[in-house]
Specification:
Hypothetical protein af1432; Beta Polymerase, domain 2; Ubiquitin-like (UB roll); 6 domains; four-stranded mixed beta sheet
Length: about 725
Amino acid sequence: MEDLLVKLRRSYPDKYAEIKRAYDFAKAAHEGQKRMSGEDYFVHPCAVAEILADFGFDSSTVIAAFLHDVLEDTPHTPEELSEMFGEEILELVDGVTKLDKLQFVNREEAQAENFRKIFIAMAKDLRVIIIKLADRLHNMRSLGCMPPEKQQRIARETLDIYAPLAGRLGISFFKCELEDLSMKYLMPDAYRYISESVAKRRSERQKFLDTICEQIEDKLKEMHIKGEVNGRPKHFYSVYRKMSKLNIDIDQIYDLLAVRIIVESVKDCYTMLGEIHTMWKPMPGRFKDYIAMPKANNYQSLHTTVVTPYNETFEIQIRTYEMHRVAEYGVAAHWKYKEGTTGIDSELDSKVRWLREVMDAQKDIDGAKEFMDAVKINVFDDEVFVFTPKGDVYGLPVGSTPVDLAYKIHSQIGNKCVGAKINKKIVPLSTKMQTGDIVEIITSNSSKGPSLDWLKFIRSASARSKIRAFFKKERRDENIARGKDMLEREAKRRGYNLGEIFTPETLHAILTRHGIGSEDDLYAAVGYGGLTTNQVLSKIIESFKEEPPAISLADESIALRTDGGKPRKHSKSGILVNGNANFTVRMAQCCSPVPGDPIIGYISRGRGVSVHRADCPNVKGMEEERLINVSWDIDGNESFNSTLLLLCENKGGLLATITTAISNMHIEIVAANVRITEKGGMGEVSVTVLVKRASELEDLVRKLRSIDGIISVRR
């Protein structure tokens, strides 16, 4: 710990007293706490602070690193932190604490709402996520003491969530080590194979690299260009990814080694590129100019792969010192040696424009799941770079179309877009653009605006949100009519009437769920694509089926109707409720109980008591205070519907055999439905019959099961 304090005193002479105060506070707060490895817990915040100090972050970030677990793991309160260290530190610590509570499964199953919280935190102050990345890096370095299942979970969320975020922020140091450490636990065999393969030829490769570097250094001196040269092996996970993608072995990877040339100016970069190509033969198709077209995370460099006369291949990267600083530190370079920098200012904002676009887009996104989809596109996808006829370069997600470009240029260009040319040829607006394409957007002032069909093929979140915003504002009446019609048709397709299932209760629930003000706003949202019909109807229909109550037992006068309270000899429904025959009762369609079945009642909203079989799966999810005792009250003349589902072989005459068997037992068939499955190999028969008691139904089930060709029968 003393070495860390010496380093901090040297790096932050003016702020050392504040840093030391945070150090002492955190040490006392975590006194007695241990990590899984058995070491003092305080080792962890010290390691996180040291990682960030080595990156040159401002003192506030280092102070927050010491304190980042205090609110979650100790009795200290936000008020104490604010009083001792100020609001800026509290906001950083509080932001990291909230991120610590997020749990992920994998990229596809990540909790979408948690992703929204991460990006909101990043938009407010990027240092929150960078502290979290440093925290995750140290946790990954000490993951060996965890149980195997926890190692797998933490490594998976690191590889799927945090490493890509580090890459998108351009912090290659974090990204590469997080990926390699994750691979060590998730793909141990591949990790061992690659690390051993690299180790076997390490001395040979190092000798080769030293020779190449010496030759390039001699060329720099000859050209009177100031610069430096160094070599490095590719990190293991990038090697593994390339092996998997190309289905090749490690010996077939050309750029396993990389030589980096760092010079003072862009002109020197291109000069050295020409000299390199005279020294060694370049491999066709392996040159990339990220200086003219930077990556989305602002990475700039020239990449070329060359072959020596001895048929050895290696990659060369050429960049300026400033480009190298950004390549290593990404957005973290913004804080290096800059005290007092907070949040996102104008300089940094230009470097994280993608983050601003994500947050702008989320204003017009109605669900967390859709926000997650937008994040995947903007964070995890690679980019294509296209040119306008004027030579302007635009970076867009892979799979983007001319419509995405039109909205990237300006909202009005997108709204007035009527066509496009790619490389001087007219193409459909749904055409996917490729890097290097010259794309011309054709507009018309007489255009009525975008088409809803564009939402089916556009790729970028910003274009999607702008199209929705247009329809939301410009065509409200049309949207309302369209949305209502879409919902009515979809409800009808599912066998429901929209007016019947749109009760005041269900409507209020769906409006509250999506933060919508009125029924017309709901129709409009569906009409312009902000909500899908499934998002609206699935919950309403589920609620309608299950009928979860919105009343209390004190409201029985509403839920249950009587005929004056006088008991009957037999109830009309065949059911007694708490011994009373005068309640409104209906049989639950989910389990169709018949006399002889053990049953239980459930007080439903506005429709009396629904009667379920006692073993009905739906009963488990019901509120216990809504369950009520019921019993059969029949005189033997009543009949009840019950539905059987038969899984059968698809063979001729089987349906006739089934109906004949039922008829021979003098049981009436109310309805039947047949569906062929599995490419005609199997069939499902749903048959509803009228029976008087459970024993009669059980006899029928046994009879049907005995028929040749029937695989199973269940209620």
